[in-house]
Amino acid sequence: MTTQHDSKGRVDVLFIAANTRSLAVNRGGFIQALQAKGLSVGALVPDDDFLKEVHELGVTTWRYELERHSMGIRGEVARFFQLRRRIRDIAPRAVFAYAVKPIILGVPAARLAGVQETYCLATGLGYLFGRHDLKTRLIRRLVTTCYALAGGLSKTFFFQNPDDRDELRRNLLFRWFTHSVVVNGSGVNLSEYPYTEAPEAPVTFLFMGRFLQEKGIRDFVEAAREISNRHPEARFVALGDADPELVNAVGIEELEAWRREGIVELPGKVRDVRGYLQAASVMVLPSYYREGIPRTLLEAMSTGRAIITCDSPGCREAVDVGVNGWLVAPRCASSLADAMESFINDPLTITKMGKSGRELAEQRFSTEFVNRQMLAEMPIVQDRTPAGSTA
Predict the structure, then answer these.
(1) What is the distance between the alpha carbons of residues 120 and 151, in angstroms, rounded to a whole number?
(2) Which segments of the chain belong to CATH 3.40.50.2000?
(3) CATH no., domain 13-187+367-383
(4) 360: Cβ–Cβ under 8 A, 6 or more apart, which residues?
(5) For residue 307, what are the CA distances in angstroms to 174, 230, 283, 317, 357?
(6) How far is residue 146 from each of residues 66, 112, 173, 273, 292, measured CA to CA in Å?
(7) Residue 301: exposed, middle, or buried by beta-carbon count in 10 A (0-12, 13-18, 19+)?
(8) For residues 15 and 96, what is the distance between their CA atoms, to the nearest angstrom?
(9) Cβ contacts of residue 37 below 8 Å, gap of 6+?
(10) SS3 for 227?
């Protein structure tokens, strides 16, 4: 992996990233806000998929190992000490960790490496907090305790919706020792996703997300089958792909069966989704994954698209019911189909709700708004003394 080195010396804020895509796409605006305050930014990253985009942000990168789904104690201990060594060598003034393992491994490692100012960001609690079998409950209890430890060691633990904070605050250690703040998701760059008039014919429903059961992709396909029998002119598009490494992911065979069926268009993974958003009438995300606030919904709102999503943590924060979209029950393809069909039967609501969604994005969900919320909670920003300064 190519590494960009900072010629000016010590890094002010070091991100511990779950992947380079999320760093560039979801944290990019926040990184630029830190840089605008005169702070240098670096990142520990586990892959190089979006490394070019990360470097274009002016971020120095170093590689570290991350096994997202491994629970082997020996391997995690080894990765913990590797993180500690990396952070000690980089010697940042502050560390900002997001996602499960970067938080529970990275924050304690940073404190042991001598970093006094650390921050955590929960971008949703994920499938661990959406399933209730015995094994998952035991793992969830361990993760919650680790979150409490990381939160107690940090200046601020950021959440993207109130349900996630309430969930972790059930843990007494977390509630007593962690300073937590809820912000409005990751925000969306309104100029990158400009408003366009939504097409009302043919009505086109767009799904964007990983093809996981909890993301609702099967519900979307089932609803499309039901609607296509009555409205063969309607279009259904799903951006994403199968990933056998992910828990509860759609299998290759099932995906190929959908392709042969031909009801849902499957372009695969798309690097720039804006063209698909502009060609869509309604954004559909029937997710019950325990999202933060899904970025796909914010991008759709900014573009001026009506939304259908589940009445579940994170997703519900993006919808004013009857104003910019509809909430449906999780795991219910029939109620999803009813909500989708309502737009076919009354296409004027597509434009009306799309305009309202853009207004909500401007009022609550712009990157500028979210960044102000977060920067106000960071002493390193208030200090504004760049690394290496003699002041």
Answers:
(1) 7
(2) 13-187+367-383, 204-364
(3) 3.40.50.2000
(4) 301, 320, 323, 324
(5) 34, 21, 5, 12, 8
(6) 17, 15, 10, 35, 19
(7) buried
(8) 5
(9) 375, 381, 384
(10) helix
Q: Dig out the tokens for 230 from the structure.
A: 């009555």
First vs last C-alpha separation in the chain: 36
CA distance 349 to 335: 18
pLDDT at 48 over 90: no
Among 5-19, 183-197, 218-232, 300-314, the range scoring the smallest mean pLDDT is 5-19
Distance of CA 377 to the CA centre of its chain: 20
Task: For the beta carbon of residue 236, count every other beta carbon within 10 angstroms.
Answer: 22
CATH topology of domain 204-364: Rossmann fold (3.40.50)
Question: Which residue in 349, 327, 365 sits closest to 198, CA to CA?
Answer: 349
Residue range 18-22: average pLDDT?
A: 92
Lowest-confidence region among 102-116, 130-144, 182-196? 130-144
Strands (E), the chain: 13-16, 41-45, 60-63, 94-98, 117-122, 156-159, 180-182, 204-208, 235-239, 265-268, 282-285, 306-310, 325-328
